[in-house]
């Protein structure tokens, strides 16, 4: 099926590229794409999957089954999938096991993880293993930020709602009187972990069924802390994901969004290659891989007719423009620098707009309507312009640095 | 003896003469009339049906219930295995050598073999295992077995108190008289109707004689089995060292235990003092909720509930709970970390566990990291497995903090967690199921509770009944322990009281009598 699909895509997006070569290139892009990698560290049920859910909005069951073993004691979750990840979560479960040695994970995640998120239930003081491993990990790479999440606050005040406002400062110290039990336990945890971590965030991320008025108590603090701690590019991705969740309400489009963002990021990475014409084929490959992935999300096979219809509606503009840009790279010296930046932006923005337009198109197909080509084209242009503006704005600080 | 035998034969002949004469003349008449064929065949049919029914009922239903060996609650696994050996042995002899069972020698022989076999079972490495047992122990076993057997016979065999070995022999002889009488009858009949008689003889041999034999064999077999199982039971007690306290004291302790096992209140204070206090030891991870559980169990805030772990060791509490006749002594151990119990913690728990009737494993309902608990359970079970003379106490898991389970904001007990449909009930059920999967093989029961003040759940309605269920078993352990403690204390005193020479002399006499 894949092959058949690929042949039809390949025919559409010239110039042609060998399947295996493209697969290798995509793998390379995945590696170089600036996606944030979080290292989750803590005991079972200390709230790790709640953190993943908070950052990705993926279903709990999906998160649970998404984790694949990657080292002896750890597993890896690619969000939304391993074809085009937008975020990666490393989960060290082995910390529960007697005699867990952090050395293996330190070696495996050494350069990979951007931020370490340690989860500790505020009432749970049996943390000898976590502490011991954390000391080693901290020593191995002191510059990597470590955020401590003190979770399950409500267990200290059962069957009571959280305080109306978030009552902790950036170091986890209370700014208002707390229930006595929470205060005692919080103090003990702050003393225990204080010297080993950069930030401490008391937090309570609960599922709606638990019945709390604020199911994401402390969530904002976590979000702003992560944005601050992550490297700029990774921070942008996190921001983009957050924004997309805030603005999109269609369920399918929301699910599609991480995929679109991931491929756009990969496309931008591909576009930043300062060698002319290679990126055109690669971009076509990235975009068609995205369309395939999105079609899977929508549960609708990506037929030749559909692609033809979509291509006709949008025009071949998105590829044509990229070809023009590639030609620009032929011009030595000046051309390359300009080509890199604008190529990245153009590739990212066009992929993003294509993905968005595809969603609108498939939404219409799912609703049994025939999408209006003019409407679709207008939407594509609008998304493209918007994305281009955003990308340019986001790129600016990085270029300056 | 001879005279009475002749008298019996004479009586039998005199009583049988009219019947035999009539049947002889009747047969002659029927033969002369040419009716014999029409009359004899239906009679034979009736005989055949009778034979079949006799055989069928005999086969499917035993006339006497087998005297099953009572497995005492204080028996350890090794004792239970030994009891099974005894039973198998008795059954095998009854099945394979039914003819020998009426001979007194057979009983002596079997008793000796059984004693040897059990002694070797308990001391597999000893050269002559029987020699390890002390004389008073053996005497106590014989005394107790004899007493038991007397009770059993007078209870189940009518007129059993008059039963002698001679009677058993006579049971065989009576069957012999029946055979002789029948032979005479067939001889007479053969004169009148040779062909039919031959046919009927074959049918009769197969039919009526067999049930008679079976009945006889069953009575002797039943007696033999009763004899061997009683003896076996006390030989087990001897080999386990529990009879070291002597037959009289053993009987006293048993009686006390039986009184103490009675439901509510019938236990006398004396009996309760001896075995009536039940000891419960709580173990579990740091902050699993052990102290709160003690508080909930005692109904008073007796244990200092601390929000952060305290460094104190185990604490002891005493309690009289409704539903449990005896006093409850509760040991609250110091919790172990999630990386597993330290060597000294295992040591302390083992020490308390061997004093305990029931162990309560306290598990936090919201903390699924239970490797440490599994490690502790495995250490306990390995320790007891290496000591077959000690019975491992049953372990009941108590899952605490039910109120924190999903939905966390809700608290609306009572929760029917067994088959309820509410979300919280489902959550409790799932959490119990998780424990079952993780640790189930080590546990007798899992009870979800909530111990927070004002939010008590599962103590009176769940935990106490679960403990009470374990107590018939638990009391067995208490019994065993009391006996062991007493034997150890008295051992020294007795060594001085009885001279070794006297002991050896008595031993020789007893064994000479036993082996003769």
Q: How many β-strand runs of chain A?
A: 9
Major β-sheet annotation of chain A: 7 strands, mixed
Mean pLDDT of chain A: 79
Q: Termini distance of chain B?
A: 26 Å
Poorly predicted ranges of chain A (pLDDT <50, ≥5 residues)?
Answer: 9-16, 316-321, 326-338, 397-401
Name some characteristics of this structure.
heterodimer, A: 401 residues, alpha/beta, two-stranded antiparallel ribbon, 15 helices, disordered C terminus, B: alpha/beta, 6 strands, 7% strand, elongated
Concise structural overview:
The complex is a heterodimer of chains A (401) and B (516). Chain A is α/β, with parallel strands linked by helices and 401 residues long. Chain A is 57% helix and 10% strand.
Report what the structure shows:
The complex is a heterodimer of chains A (401) and B (516). Chain A has helices at 2-12, 19-32, 48-56, 60-66, 103-109, 128-140, 180-193, 219-229, 232-247, 251-271, 278-297, 304-314, 317-328, 334-366, 373-400, and strands spanning 37-42, 68-69, 74-79, 87-92, 115-121, 146-151, 199-202, 204-205, 216-217. Chain A is α/β, with parallel strands linked by helices. Chain B is α/β, with parallel strands linked by helices and 516 residues long. Chain B is built from 16 helices and six strands. In chain B, strands 2-3-1-4-5-6 form a six-stranded mixed sheet, sandwiched between helices. In chain B, helix 1 runs parallel beside helix 6 (165-192). The longest helix of chain B has 39 residues, at 459-497. Chain B is elongated, with a radius of gyration of 33 Å. Chain B starts with a helix and ends with a helix. Chains A and B meet through helix 7 of A and helix 13 of B.
Describe the SSE topology.
The complex is a heterodimer of chains A (401) and B (516).
Chain A: H1 2-12, H2 19-32, E1 37-42, H3 48-56, H4 60-66, E2 68-69, E3 74-79, E4 87-92, H5 103-109, E5 115-121, H6 128-140, E6 146-151, H7 180-193, E7 199-202, E8 204-205, E9 216-217, H8 219-229, H9 232-247, H10 251-271, H11 278-297, H12 304-314, H13 317-328, H14 334-366, H15 373-400
Parallel strand pairs in A: 1-4, 1-5, 5-6, 6-7
Antiparallel strand pairs in A: 2-3, 3-4, 8-9
Helix pairs in contact in A: 2-10, 8-9, 9-10, 10-11, 10-14, 11-13, 11-14, 12-15, 13-14, 14-15
Chain B: H1 2-33, H2 36-60, H3 77-96, H4 104-122, H5 135-156, H6 165-192, H7 194-206, H8 209-239, H9 247-260, H10 269-276, E1 278-284, H11 290-298, E2 315-320, E3 327-332, H12 343-355, E4 358-364, H13 371-385, E5 395-400, H14 423-439, E6 445-448, H15 459-497, H16 500-515
Parallel strand pairs in B: 1-3, 1-4, 4-5, 5-6
Antiparallel strand pairs in B: 2-3
Helix pairs in contact in B: 1-6, 2-7, 2-8, 3-4, 3-8, 4-8, 5-8, 6-7, 6-8, 9-10, 9-15, 12-13
């Amino acid at each position: 099926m894949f092959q058949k699909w690929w042949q039809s895509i390949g025919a559409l997006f010239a110039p042609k590229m060998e399947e295996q070569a493209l697969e290798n290139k995509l793998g390379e892009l995945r590696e170089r794409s600036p996606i944030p990698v979080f290292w989750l560290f803590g005991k079972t049920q200390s709230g790790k999957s709640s953190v993943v859910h908070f950052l990705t909005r993926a279903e709990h069951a999906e998160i649970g089954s998404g984790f694949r073993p990657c080292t002896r004691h750890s597993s890896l979750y690619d969000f939304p999938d391993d074809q085009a990840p937008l975020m990666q979560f490393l989960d060290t479960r082995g910390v529960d096991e007697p005699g867990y040695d952090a050395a293996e994970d330190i070696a495996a995640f050494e350069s990979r993880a951007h931020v370490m998120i340690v989860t500790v239930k505020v009432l749970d003081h049996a943390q000898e293993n976590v502490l011991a491993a954390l000391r080693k990990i901290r020593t191995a790479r002191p510059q990597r930020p470590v955020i401590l999440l003190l979770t399950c606050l409500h267990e200290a005040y059962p069957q009571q709602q959280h305080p109306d406002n978030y009552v902790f400062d950036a170091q986890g110290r209370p700014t208002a009187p707390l229930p006595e039990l929470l205060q005692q336990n919080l103090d003990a945890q702050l003393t225990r972990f204080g010297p080993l971590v950069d930030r401490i965030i008391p937090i309570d991320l609960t599922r709606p069924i638990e019945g709390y008025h604020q199911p994401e108590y402390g969530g904002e603090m976590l979000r702003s802390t992560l944005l601050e701690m992550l490297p700029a590019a990774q921070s942008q991705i996190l921001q983009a994901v957050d924004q997309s969740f805030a603005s999109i309400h269609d369920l399918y489009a929301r699910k599609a969004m991480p995929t679109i963002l991931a491929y756009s990021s990969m496309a931008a990475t591909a576009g930043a290659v300062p060698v002319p014409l290679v990126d055109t084929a690669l971009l076509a490959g990235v975009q068609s891989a995205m369309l395939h992935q999105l079609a899977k999300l929508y549960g609708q096979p990506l037929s030749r007719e559909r692609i033809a219809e979509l291509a006709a509606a949008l025009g071949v503009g998105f590829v044509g423009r990229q070809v023009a840009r590639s030609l620009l790279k032929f011009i030595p010296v000046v051309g390359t620098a300009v080509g890199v930046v604008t190529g990245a932006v153009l590739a990212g923005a066009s992929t993003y707009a294509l993905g968005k337009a595809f969603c609108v198109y498939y939404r219409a197909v799912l609703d049994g309507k025939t999408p209006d080509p003019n409407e679709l084209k207008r939407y594509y242009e609008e998304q493209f312009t918007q994305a281009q503006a955003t990308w340019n704005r986001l790129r600016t600080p990085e270029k300056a640095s | 003896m001879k005279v009475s035998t002749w008298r019996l034969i004479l009586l039998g002949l005199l009583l049988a003469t009219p019947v035999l004469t009539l049947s002889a003349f009747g047969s002659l008449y029927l033969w002369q009339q040419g009716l014999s064929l029409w009359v004899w065949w239906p009679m034979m049919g009736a005989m055949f049906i009778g034979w079949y029914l006799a055989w069928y009922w005999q086969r499917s239903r035993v006339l006497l219930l087998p005297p099953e060996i009572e497995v005492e609650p204080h028996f350890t696994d090794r004792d239970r295995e030994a009891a099974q050996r005894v039973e198998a042995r008795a059954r095998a002899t009854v099945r394979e050598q039914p003819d020998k069972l009426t001979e007194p020698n057979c009983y002596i022989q079997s008793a000796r073999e059984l004693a040897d076999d059990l002694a070797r079972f308990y001391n597999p490495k000893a050269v002559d295992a029987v020699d390890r047992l002390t004389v008073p122990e053996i005497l106590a076993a014989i005394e107790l077995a004899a007493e038991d057997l007397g009770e059993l016979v007078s209870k189940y065999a009518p007129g059993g108190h008059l039963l002698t070995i001679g009677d058993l022999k006579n049971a065989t002889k009576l069957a012999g008289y029946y055979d002789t009488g029948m032979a005479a009858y067939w001889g007479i009949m053969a004169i009148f109707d040779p062909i039919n008689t031959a046919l009927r003889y074959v049918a009769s041999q197969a039919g009526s004689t067999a049930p008679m034999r079976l009945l006889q064999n069953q009575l002797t077999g039943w007696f033999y089995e009763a004899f061997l199982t009683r003896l076996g039971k006390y030989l087990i007690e001897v080999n386990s060292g529990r009879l070291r306290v002597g037959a009289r004291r053993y009987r006293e302790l048993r009686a006390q235990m039986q009184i103490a096992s009675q439901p509510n209140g019938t236990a006398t204070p004396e009996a309760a003092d001896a075995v009536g206090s039940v000891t419960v030891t709580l173990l579990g991870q740091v902050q699993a909720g052990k102290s709160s559980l003690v508080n909930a169990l005692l109904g008073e805030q007796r244990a200092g509930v601390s929000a952060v772990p305290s460094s104190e060791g185990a604490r002891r509490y005493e309690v009289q709970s409704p539903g449990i006749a005896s006093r409850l002594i509760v040991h609250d151990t110091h919790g172990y970390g999630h990386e597993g119990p330290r060597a000294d913690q295992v040591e302390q728990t083992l020490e308390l566990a061997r004093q305990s009737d029931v162990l309560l494993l306290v598990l936090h309902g919201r903390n699924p990291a239970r490797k440490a608990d599994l490690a502790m359970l495995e250490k306990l079970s390995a320790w007891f497995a290496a000591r077959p003379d000690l019975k491992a106490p049953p372990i009941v898991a108590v899952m605490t903090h039910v109120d924190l389970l999903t939905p966390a904001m809700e608290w609306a007990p009572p929760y029917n967690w067994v088959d309820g449909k509410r979300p919280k009930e489902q959550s409790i059920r799932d959490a119990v199921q998780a424990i079952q999967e993780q640790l189930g093989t080590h546990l007798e029961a899992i009870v979800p509770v909530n111990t927070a003040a004002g939010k008590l759940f599962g103590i009176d309605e769940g935990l106490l009944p679960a403990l009470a269920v374990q107590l018939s078993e638990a009391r067995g352990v208490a019994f065993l322990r009391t006996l062991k403690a007493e034997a150890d204390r008295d051992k020294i005193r007795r060594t001085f009281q009885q001279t070794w020479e006297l002991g050896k002399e008595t031993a020789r006499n007893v064994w000479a009598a036993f082996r003769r």
